[in-house]
């Protein structure tokens, strides 16, 4: 009778189960990476829109109020390829202050969702 010495290695079933668990974990990580990339892209677009609104607001704040149109709209395509439509409205809710409301709209090309950011500032009436 032949006696085999007990092996200390892994069986084929144990290796296959470990590979299946590893494959499931890697697939879930791949899905997480896609979601993270989309959210990072959306954050970048939001930053671009906020920067555009802030730049416009700063330009308007240093301009004499008599030269600023009460309403205005325009569109800009930035390096990201996104077209931002922006507009402003100047109102005078109080006789000593003018309010400038800047609105920026864009559509996320990945999710095809429309987004809007609004900035409001008051400046003293000259």
Averaged pLDDT? 87
Tell me the number of strands.
4
Radius of gyration, whole Å: 29 Å
- Residue stretches low in confidence (pLDDT < 50, at least 5 long) are none
Distance between the termini: 109 Å
- From the 3D coordinates, which CATH architecture would you assign? 2-Layer Sandwich
Largest sheet data: 4 strands, antiparallel
Give the overall silhouette: rod-shaped
Helicity, as a percent range: 40-55%
Q: Can you tell me the CATH class?
A: Alpha Beta
Task: Provide keyphrases for this structure.
126 residues; alpha+beta; Pantoate--beta-alanine Ligase, Chain: A,domain 2; 4-stranded antiparallel beta sheet; 1 helix
Task: Tell me what you see in this structure.
- The protein is an alpha+beta fold and 126 residues long.
- It has a single domain, classed as Pantoate--beta-alanine Ligase, Chain: A,domain 2.
- The protein is 40% helix and 33% strand.
- It has 1 helix and 4 strands; from the N terminus they run αββββ.
- The chain has one helix spanning 12-62; strands at 71-77, 83-94, 97-107, 114-124.
- It has a 4-stranded antiparallel β-sheet, covered by helices on one side.
- The chain is rod-shaped.
- The termini are far apart.
- The relative contact order is 0.15.
